[in-house]
Amino acid sequence: MDVKPRLPRGRQFFANPGPTNIPDSILHAVAHVTVDFNDPAFLAVYDRCVAGLKRVLRTEQSVFMYTGSGHAAWEASMVNLFSPGDTLLVIESGYFSENWARMAQDLGLVVRSVAADWRRGAEIGAVEAALAADAAHEIKAVCAVHNETATGMVLPLPAIRAAMDAAGHPALLLADTISSLGSLDFRMDEWGVDVAVGGSQKGLMLPTGMSFTGVSARAMAAHATSRLPKSYFNWTNMLARRHRSFVGTVPTSLFYGLEESLRLIEEEGLEQVFARHARLAEAVRRCVRHWSGNDGPQLFCLSPDRYSDSVTAILLPEGHDAERVRRIALEAFNVSLGGGLGRLGGKVFRIGHLGDLNEPMILGTLASVEMALRLAGVPHNPGGVAAAMDWLAEAAGQG
Ligand SMILES: *Cc1c(COP(=O)(O)O)cnc(C)c1O
Question: Which residues does the record give as substrate binding sites (predicted)?
Answer without folding.
Answer: 350
